[in-house]
Amino acid sequence: MKIRNVERPASRGIAIGKAYVVEKQELIASGYTAGNPQEEIKKYEDAVNAVADSLETLAGDNPIFAAHLELVRDMALAEGVKTRILGGSNAEQALSDTIDEFRMIFEMMDDEYMRERAADIQDIRNRLMCRLKGMEETSFDGIQEEVILIARDLAPSDTAKLDLNLVLGFITQEGGVTSHVSIMARNVGLPALVGVEQIMEEVATGDEVILDAVEGAIVLNPDGETRAQYREKQEKFRKREQELESVSHLPAVSEDGHKVQVCANVGSLDDISLAVTKGIDGIGLFRSEFLYMDNTHFPTEEEQYEVYKKAARLCEGEVIIRTLDIGGDKALPYYTFDKEENPFLGWRAIRISLDLRDVFKAQLRALLRASAYGKLCIMYPMIISLEELQEANQILTECKEELIREGKAFNPDIRVGMMIETPAAVLNVRRLAKEVDFFSIGTNDLTQYLLAVDRGNQKIAKMYDSFHPAVLTAIRQIIDAGHEAGIPVGMCGEFASDEKAVQMLLGMGLDEFSVNAGAVAGVKYRIRSSSYRECTKLADDIRELYTIKEVMERLQ
Amino acid sequence: MVSQNIVVKNKSGLHLRPAGLLSQIAQKCQSEITLVKGEKRVNPKSVLYLMAAGIMCGDEITVECEGSTEVEDLQTILDAINSGLGE
């Protein structure tokens, strides 16, 4: 038995079965003496036409093959091959050398996505080479039973011929999480581990393999005990996936009838489109930063209006849009920030908005105008004082007055809230609650600022812990102050989806859990299988605990 | 010759699929077309050259067209890039 650990599962799941190792025929260019250049060119052109024909049938509704079709017919490729043939190479060698040149260009590019496109070019090469040699392309005819497929890498041309009913999972020696096989495995829901060095040498067809793409492990030739353990683990995983699937579209209500909202955190319109399929109650945090970062200028009111309008229309529930939240640690291509000693304590978020008044007003006006099309809410980040909040609200009022004068539609009762993520906001929370319609707790920054621990510093990474009793006390105070003032309190930090934290937060009275789309079902499942009364008791008990260790023991 | 600058807005730049579409469109134009990004000059009728130019989101590029239909062709290419190339 041999166990290997693998980082970053490409597609989650567990498979147990026989290995089928895909031995690709080595498609090395043969060194035959080139015939008449015109004959060699004709040979190459015939191969291109044959491959193009077969791709054309595949390309119908598959954009990858449509793009491959363009690659096969590419004029630069044809020119490169013909020039080499005229220089005395045979067709195979000319193809091989031309492709190598392009592949090298791609492999040296800065962008991970572009580097992985070298595989697409290789795929084209192999298709053409097979034709030139008069060989069959890779075939999976040897697969007679369900197998775990092991390959150096799998190209779209390979997987198109594959009968997925006979595949339990994939392991590839090359490729990353954005490679073709990773994306395909996620789409069809099969487990996959990619970039597993040496795997082709370590496994032979027929070996028994356990593929654990949950924790990231491969077990070769497991003993009986290990196999039994994994069967159990696999069963548990399947059951949980099924349960999650079955609750994801049910409301987030505890066993004893306490209802909360489960929402999604998003960073783009695509994220919203995905999130709305996961049974969410709304968008608890829409990060507007992408509008500023993927741009060449501060986004205009019109540009933002179009995006916010789409966001409002995409989601039936509330969409909470956070105003610009960047600082000196992130660069904008069109605006130079002064270098700061402490960017996290520097000119960032609402501080920038209040200083760059025109930039802020463009965003607020766009948000207001888009509010005519759905349930948009506005949220200010990183507030530390009542003055800041009042000033922001004053600017918002100005924007509303302008829009009324201009006769432009907006929702006059748009709900306005703030993030609570600084110690100063926690200490002033009862007063702040009187000025807004909702709070959202940003646990990532709150933890970092309360504990004075830099999240990014490896040396003290262990000290960054949202279960620190000081953080828990702050969360409790925020929720209590919100409820006292009659406003709902949500949480949009990672803590809201922490398996160990959900019941405690429910017991503290948190009204809205805003989490990544992938975590929605898990959080709902937890809430639906909890008793609110018991969670309240749990939260009360934790109040009396003063070390992380005690807290964790109580949460077990 | 006519030319104009344009900013590419595709999120992942001109990667495989948008580059494939743009080269299809370019192939239908009769003009000699060149895309210029910094030092690099590429013929967009080749998808390989297009991708190798590594044109990313937010890059400002120049489109040059030369030939009897250069004015129409320039507009065709600019419109295609502005349309987001299927994204």
Describe it for me?
- The complex is a heterodimer of chains A (556) and B (87).
- In chain A, 47% of the residues lie in helices and 13% in strands.
- By secondary structure, chain A is α/β, with parallel strands linked by helices.
- In chain A, the strands form two sheets. Chain A has an eight-stranded parallel β-barrel, surrounded by five helices.
- In chain A, helix 4 (91-107) runs antiparallel to helix 6, helix 10 crosses helix 22 and helix 15 (357-370) crosses helix 16 (386-406).
- Chain A is globular, with a radius of gyration of 29 Å.
- Chain A starts with a strand and ends with a helix.
- The model of chain A has no long low-confidence stretch (mean pLDDT 90).
- In chain B, a hairpin with a 2-residue loop joins strand 2 (32-37) and strand 3.
- A four-stranded antiparallel β-sheet of chain B has the order 1-4-2-3, with helices on one face.
- The chains are: A alpha/beta (556), B alpha+beta (87).
- The A-B interface holds A 63-64, 66-67, 69-71, 74-77, 102, 105-106, 109-111, 113-114, 117, 120-121, 294-296, 333 and B 7, 11-13, 15-17, 19-20, 23-24, 43, 45-49, 51-52, 54, 56-58, 60, 86.
Amino-to-carboxy terminus distance of chain A: 33 Å
- Oligomer class: heterodimer
Task: Please give the order of strands in the largest beta sheet of chain B.
Answer: 1-4-2-3
Strand order of the largest sheet of chain A: 8-9-10-11-12-13-14-15
Helix fraction of chain A by DSSP (H/I, runs of at least 4): 40-55%
Count of alpha and pi helical runs of chain B: 3
Task: Please summarize the sheet with the most strands of chain A.
Answer: 8 strands, parallel, barrel
How far the N terminus sits from the C terminus of chain B, by CA atoms, comes to: 30 Å
Task: Quickly give the structural class of chain B.
Answer: alpha+beta
Instruction: Please report the total strand number of chain B as a whole number.
Output: 4
Shape, principal axes of CA atoms of chain A? globular
Number of strands of chain A: 15
Quickly give the structural class of chain A: alpha/beta
- Overall mean pLDDT score of chain A? 90
Mean pLDDT of chain B: 88
Low-confidence stretches of chain A: none
* General form of chain B: globular
Poorly predicted runs of chain B are: none
Number of helices of chain A: 24
Q: Radius of gyration of chain A over alpha carbons?
A: 29 Å
Q: Which chain pair has the greatest contact?
A: A-B, 26 and 25 residues
